[in-house]
Amino acid sequence: MSEPWSCLPLPLAEDVAASWAAVFPEGLPGWLLEDACISAEVIAQALARSLFLRQTLERHPEQVRTLLESRTLSEPTTPDYLQARCNEYLADVTDEPGLQGALRRFRRETQFRIIWRDLMRWADLPETMAATSAFAEVCIQGALNWLHDAACEQYGTPWGIDPVSGSEAPQSLIVIGMGKLGGFELNVSSDIDLIFAFPGKGETRGGQRSLDNQQFFIRLGQRLIQALDQITADGFVFRVDMRLRPYGQSGALALSFAALETYYQDQGRDWERYAMVKARVVAGDQKAGQVLMESLRPFVYRRYIDFSAFESLRSMKAMISREVRRQGLENNIKLGSGGIREIEFVVQAFQLIRGGRDRELQQRELLVILKELESLELLPPQVINELREAYIFLRNLEHALQGMEDKQTQLLPEDELSRARVALSMGFDDWQSCQQVLTQHREKVATHFGNIIATEEDEESSKSSLEEGWFELWLAEVDEVSDTEWLEKHGYEDPGGSLSLLASLRDSRTVQTMQTQGRKRLNQFMPVLLEALAKVERPSETLSRVLQLVEAILRRTAYMVLLLENPGARTQLVKLCSESPWIARQLAEAPLLLDELLNAESLYNPPARDELQDDLRQQMLRISYEDLENQMESLRHFKRAHTLRVAASELKGTLPLMKVSDYLTWIAEVVLDHVVDLAFSNLVARHGYPGRADGAANATDFAVIGYGKLGGIELGYTSDLDLVFVHNADPGLATDGDKPIDNVVFYTRLGQRIVHILNAQTPSGQLYEVDMRLRPSGKSGLLVSTLQAFGKYQRNDAWTWEHQALARARGVAGCSETLAAFEAIRHDILCQSRDKDKLRQEVVEMREKMRANLGTAESRREETFHIKHDAGGIVDMEFMVQYLMLAWCEEHPELTRWSDNIRQMEELGRVGVLPVEDAEKLREAYIALRSNIHRRALQNLNSQVAGDAFADERRYIRSVWQKIMVG
């Protein structure tokens, strides 16, 4: 008699044979064979396809037996069945640990059933998606019911106006499911995207003390997340992602209906419209929830055919392409080219564009919408069929990948055994056959995606014909004399040097060992590039800069294709590299920045702070906070991309100096905001929230203070960040998690993590260099101070130079209450009464020390002028302003409003401390000197210029210094 695994392919047969005795040490149990559809051979097939099924049978056989007694595996998994089983599991729960344990045991049982039926193909795709979605709903509702009752016992019952009846009534939390949960399309190992809402304002009744409704529902929401998301000895139920809520990670955990409606009406972004297409109420008061969903419908679906959506669709297409290139996601069947996301995107595009008029499109399930698109004749039947078949294949493949180990992944496996498991689950004899069909589906999807969401550049497929001479030059098909003459004819100022550079590239080992396809692309790209260079000033010099980029992308020739197919991007590349070696180096270090060149309009119009924040939120939505490496890489790309846009705008003249610094400072502030959220969330996941005397949670009580150029809103392209960290929590309390630590330890670790995220060198470089030496007591001081200790130090122990630094300080990220408290301390310190003569002497002495250490040596002053540190330079002006601020804030407290030198000068003139003429001339000189530093930075030059530069400005600055600081 043959063994049960004898019909399996060889590597799987050996694998199952090796594990059989461990799974069934006493032989195959009879209860497992009571289902007529299950045999030893079927069990061997299941063990071959899934390590999760194997481990569950090995470690929890009694639970599998209970599962089979409740319903055989050959019967479908229905919502009613799942509800009944959930009720049984939760029937005896008496406390939250018990609730968590019951839900996690229920998950193990349900996952076994769903994954078995899916991988054995006893269930089709619609059943698997519906069962997984229904399982999530009954878990959320079951947990919510129990936790709501427990919260009401503790805090009382929340009351307010019922949105259905219009009269007062008890309120409940409304849980909105987004993404695949909202669309009844959850995969077998997915996270769940949720938004929490409640009907309206009010307070709890019947508790020991009343709570505001929002506080009640925030606490309830936190406990619900913990019940589902927290990893215990029994595992977890679902990873919960709340970042799709208004304002993302920084937004309140639960919002009223009115607040949600106002947000989406006033601030809703295009990507949030896409997210809301699938939104539906999955738990809580369904009737009240429907009132909310109806109020949000106009935000999602316009009443007319919304052709304006095409522009945002193009942007989202570009974002998808960037993400694939950035993260190397070609083997990701969801995010890669021709993957699941592209099918979803096509369908949602039609929903948003036409859903307002064609209400048939206002549904959630993708396969249903595809039928409607065919009925409405919006897409040809062949396209519909190919998208449908590809979607079913890709989703089944996704489940095969995830069902192997009950693991959230969409990456194709690389090891032989995993590939064999997937191929078997998908009904193929081998991996090659499976991959061949997968490739066919992905190619079709990519084609339809490109055709439907085409950009103007995509449509301009015709390429201008090149003169043959450029090909002959690159391929070295003619003699050197002819090549030299050709380059001279086309404006190359150093043809010999250019030919030498091209020969070095051609003969390099990297080029010589390129694959055929890559070499073909290089040979297409270089002649086009050489022709483009002929249109800028000093083509030879620009070529030397651009070749840094070419060398960087030799192994990633998709970037060459991008530049070949996008003449506009190619033009911007050579133009920017011609104007700035700094930009050329940035592009060479991070070729992904080439994506920024695709849209000249956005390249030369960098976004304002709110738009920056929104852009970062969108980029980070799908990266787990636990995935610190990807978070850090994405932050670095975000900073580089937006800094490039600022630099391009400055070179073009669309941004004046003041705006350049504003934008560079905004980029840093937005990054810091996210880094604080990221670091705080990671620590909270491990230790809980810092304790507060009022018992409130979900507040950081932490603030980042910017000093120097960041505080003064004067960041340059290479500026570091002078930071000070403060918190306003009770140092005597501890966090409220399972592994509590003292608040002091929590905030110290928070500061350390923030510095690490900013400072660490990754493949994309460093985010910002951080300088913490301005904190109280400098290097020997605590990394994070309490506000009380910070204020005490400033009043009693700080040196004059530290008060000078405080004049340029401001809060840049963190808790708004803590930031306001810092500002009050700053105001008080700056307004202290001071002896003006003593103050002047101390400031002058400090300035002389700085000039001696950092300024130009006396022997070289005639030939060199250091714009910042020499007499008549920027630092002289800064010290004068700081002296005047410290001397006169007591009499003019309004001076403390600003932290930047320009507005401080203007304010000093306005209140009469500084003659208006001096204020205006100093301002003009300050801008002139700083503008020069900015421009030199873009040329990779330092702050030292010729000795006779800025003679008039320096003379005037020295005269004002003499008048104010010497007398």
From TrEMBL:
The molecular function terms of the Gene Ontology recorded here are:
[glutamate-ammonia-ligase] adenylyltransferase activity; [glutamine synthetase]-adenylyl-L-tyrosine phosphorylase activity; ATP binding; ligase activity; magnesium ion binding
**UniProt keyword annotations, A-Z:** ATP-binding, Ligase, Magnesium, Multifunctional enzyme, Nucleotide-binding, Nucleotidyltransferase, Transferase
Q: Known EC number(s)? A: 2.7.7.89, 2.7.7.42
- Write down the chemical reaction(s) this protein catalyses: [glutamine synthetase]-O(4)-(5'-adenylyl)-L-tyrosine + phosphate = [glutamine synthetase]-L-tyrosine + ADP; [glutamine synthetase]-L-tyrosine + ATP = [glutamine synthetase]-O(4)-(5'-adenylyl)-L-tyrosine + diphosphate
Q: What are the required cofactors?
A: Mg(2+)
Q: Which stretches make up the Glutamate-ammonia ligase adenylyltransferase repeated domain?
A: 43-290, 571-824
**Which portions of the sequence form the region Adenylyl removase?**
1-457
User: What highest taxon heads this organism's lineage?
Assistant: Bacteria
Family, as annotated: Belongs to the GlnE family.
| Protein name as it appears in the record | Bifunctional glutamine synthetase adenylyltransferase/adenylyl-removing enzyme
Organism (species): Marinobacter antarcticus
